[in-house]
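Pasting two entries for a bug report.
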Amino acid sequence: MRRPTDSAPCGADDTRDRCRRGAGHRGVPGTHRRVRAAHHERPGHRYRRTTCGGVAGRPRRGRRRATAGQEIGGAGGDVGPARHRRVAHRGTDDRSGAERPAEGRGCQPGRHRTGTGQIVRVLRPVRHVVRRDRAIRQAVHTRGIRGRDADTDTRGGRDVDTRGCRGVGPGHGCRGTAPRRRPSHRDPFLPVHPPLGTEGGQDFKGARLIVRWDASDRFDVTLSGDIYSDDSEPSPSRLIAVRPDHASAPLLTPFLDVGRYESYSLYQSQRGYGLAGRNRLDGYGVSGQLNYDFSDNLTLTSISAYRTYDGFFQVDLDGTSYGMTTQHVGLDFEQFSQELRVNGSLAGGRLDYTVGGYFYSGRGASAGLIELTFQAVNPPAPPPPAASFHIQDDIVEIENKSAFLHTIFRATDALTLSLGIRYTDEWKTLVLHRKDPVTLEFQPLEGANGRFDGDHVDYRVSLDYRWNPNLLTYVSFATGFKGGGISSRPYRAEQVVPFGPEKLEAWEVGFKSDFFDRRARFNVSAFHNKYDDIQLTVRSGTGIFAPPASVTVNAGEAEMTGFEAEFSLNPTSGLAIDAAVGYLDFEYTELSPGVLASGLAMHHVTPFTPEWKWSLGAQYEFALGDGRTITPRFDVAYQSEIYANPVNNPMWVVDDYTVADARVTYRNPTSGVEVALAVTNLFDKYYYTSLYDNLYGSQGTVIANVARPREWSISVRKNF
């Protein structure tokens, strides 16, 4: 745990989550830190899906972000106590896929006839297995067949895989053929069905360069740049629930009875649009920081930064082969930020201050093809009427200006008082563009727009007292806000509505201690947060919440109370033990009538808010001579159950789980070589990380994101 006054500010060149627009509460920094959750965001695991399948592969959905406290001098960062805290976990971050055999399955479990050409995708990348069960599932390859889709001509005797079992049931075969080729992620709209593959894999490349120039003893310049390309697969998911009274329940329900690591995702819409089943993001950023020391007690700092990215993500979100919900959404965004601040010291070094301003401007587009039918049909029946079928090209613009002052006054050698204030003025606009993909005529939402304008004043007060070199206590109060905006996923014009900022008041008290000659450390903090105009996204209800819906609103007021504790111990040379625990108690104190009508109740809790989290780790460093060491380490982490929807239906619970990791590291300081063998999810625990709920919406399903199975990796590092 960091001392409240030691938090690093978000600079204009800072690209961490807490510094991005809308990532959390902004304004005066609070005392709550953002701590990583073990096993929360790992590189995608290999998740095979059937070419006859219909969903999986939605973009990652993170839980509500916990944010780190920062100084008022930070540039547009988040403010502290965040609603959802995460217990720190010191374990390996090395991840790698490991191949395993698994059984193949058909397009619709137990209901295929022999020879319909089913090919499976399963979570673990393994060889194809032909299995005899209630029916035979097998891959069928033919020559010289002309596909039913317009561009799937297979003349010339090329090998093809029969694909496209959309809505396969008893007595139905696959529909269409596709050339055996890997679709290019540069051409995401394919007129053919995607080939056999996996979900959850990652393909990331990047480079970073930092150059520092010390022009004089008073002036220095730091320039940095980075470039990256992420061509990864969609997140792995599977269907886990179907609403019994949904019109398509008889067709959807059989997909519940599949293997744990299987997904029936075709990425093929009901109107014949095929997607590549990939996510892509390419971008680069540059920044420059100039520091000039007018004197030993006065420094001027300027930070300028520019970043841009473009890419797309693809979604097939019904968990079956019927393609009821398919989306290709392209992203194109650029932003510029400028921070100017002065750091100084007065009163013989007893008073430190930071005063400055921050400017941010961003503009982006969200373009793509969306098809939502929410109804399954068996071929050759024609596709049902679409709830939404359009080409979109939505434009968003953001501007933020702020000014801040932060002071630290050392009243005595032991007593420190911190005061800060920040003013923020921001606006956001959203303009929707909608066309029919076939006729290219404008749709009713064409030109619909919304605008949010707002300003906010936040402040922070913190007092800490160092009783001796090994014990510090502190108490703080801070306000902050999470910016407002416009609901960006409307299905009807009345859903294009702005929502206001979510405001926060946060109290925190705690202590930091070292003992046993600093071989042990014990830090504890308790906090109480009050939320006003809390933001929630509602997907079902009445009025503007009537399905289909995904409307963000200010739902009401809430309170959250909890504590965090961290402990570390080095009892002997080479042995290190660390542990952390966090507890949250959340409750609503007031909810609006419209939100209550959607099914939300006063005793519900916000999504992705675990009551308990803890982690425990231990390692021992063995000396091998000549400075060489080998260090085995073991970590275990726990998270209690969470809800994936503001309405706490039992079907929307992500169960609690305990996961262990292990790692052995060899170090040779003479050569600078470090080699590590790591195993994640050591005991091969099967669990879900999150859910996408539309059970009582138009789709009538719940989709779960499946966690990574056991994996091993070897990493080699060379230090120069």
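Entry 2 (this is the one that rendered wrong in the viewer):
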Amino acid sequence: MDPFEQAADLMKANKFEQAIDLYSIIIDVIPEHAPSYCWRGVCYFRIQNSNQALTDLLQSITLDPQMHIAYYLLGLFHNDLKLFGKAVEYFTFAISLEPSDYNSFQYRAHSYMSLNLLDSALSDANKAIELNPNASSYNIRGNIHSHMDNLYNAKSDYEKAIELNPEFTEAISNLATILYELEDYEGSVNTASQALTTNPNDAESYNTRGLAFKQLGILETAINDFNHALSLSPKYTAAYLNRGVLYREIGEIDKAITDFNTSLSINSKDHQVYDELANIHLNYKIDYQAAICCTRIAESLQPDHAGYLYQLSNLYLNWNTFDDKTISKYSYLKYYEEFVVDNVLNNNEFLNRFKSAKSFSAKAFLSLFDLMRTDLRKIDDKLILYLFIGSSEYLSYPLTNQSLYFNDVQNFTDKTTDCTLLFPFNQNLTIRPLNFNNVRVRSLCYLESRSEIAKFHSMWDRYANGHTGIAYELEIDKRWLIKNKIYAGKIKYIERDKLKISTESPEDVIQSGLFTKDVSFKPEREWRLIKFGTFEEFEGIDIGWELDIDVAGIQVNAIFTGLNMAKSEKSRISKICQNSEIEIFQMFQESDGNLSYEKANS
């Protein structure tokens, strides 16, 4: 057998050291044999001799600059070392030599994703699928969609990957994670269990299933799954964190602290663990000073985290006593003293706590609004939403102004649970109550299809004033929202006793503070628009956004007039809509009592 082929067979059989010996013999005989350098480099990499691997791979392209496979392998090599910028360079060389190389597109997509260049990553993943629609490419594109918070697209890609390869554990595990994020906890449990049938040693699937069991209230099984994950992967910090959180929630505080400390011994810069320790000090040991210190550590590791800034503002405001022995009191917390932020544990910081509270409050809001602007980029370019109006004063407003009128939040009927972040008495955030006169809110509805408008009985009765009003189908340009400093978000409906501001993440602050509502309102399917101005309490900082474009405002696609709308109002609407492409429908009641609609005057 040819020595080169024999070496290749040894490599395929995972006999890397024997393969290296044979490739070395070939190189001694033929010093310019680039393929032998290339594949010897791969063998060195497989036995974790990275320096020699890189030397051999670089020598192969020095001898043969057109050696496409060597550039591809160098890309994989740097990907594995997490040197993603260099990986992109080598994959790009490989693609220039072989434009149909779907593998290079696929793994360059992974590199771009790791660099958070998500648009480039998605473009490469699409190209890889176009060239070769295999399970691995769909799985990578699913990961990219997940990073972009396009969860349903990610779910679809993972499902396609599994369809192409039903034994693809990674894709099945990823799907379980997405189902968990979509709050389909039973689906997540079932899918994670499926992953474990294909690979019983998949620690990540045990961790995901543990989280889902926890949400379903099956706590002992959840703990068992976290235990399994850690027995398979003793340095799996996420499993320690998740088990610690569960222990904290069931009151096993000492066990929780042990898990958090173990996690920190593996990764001493995990900001989430410090946040959890702050939670313990705040809610169980009632020590604001220790909670402040842990939260300051978390914020120093994750700068501009609105949740931590919001929490710090609240903590400083309620910090009533100073104890210079705090560090020694909590010496059982590993790595606690190492990351203590300068000037946190001193009397001067205590004396200036109210000033600090206000500063953290301002920073929290600035961080939130920056995140909101980023989030707006993720929604569709055009939103199709529905507006129900009963007051004749505003019936024609969207038509005549290409805009919307916004309500004063101070007029909300349920100030304790609706838009809680906008009410000072729900926050305890600042020394002076914030002036929210420049904040306005507009509530709209989202439908799966236009035909659903006939089923919205409560909206017609309550907001269209007993069918005397009107419903608009509106097309809203995302750029118009950004230009006018308007943030858009879908309402999440939860039980009333859980309606409070969560600071676990910036996204949680936004969702819980601005976009949650009592579950009794769920039939309304609200999509809320919030228009912000300048908060003078923040030294005149404008927390809105500027976009220098000329973009049309609200476009009215269709109008639906209520069953009991006065003829004079219908006539006024018709006149305004003359010479426009707006469709006008009128609601009517069918013989079976159900609502429907038809073209006006048809």
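Dev reply: Rendering is fixed now. As a check, the viewer should reflect this: The radius of gyration is 30 Å.
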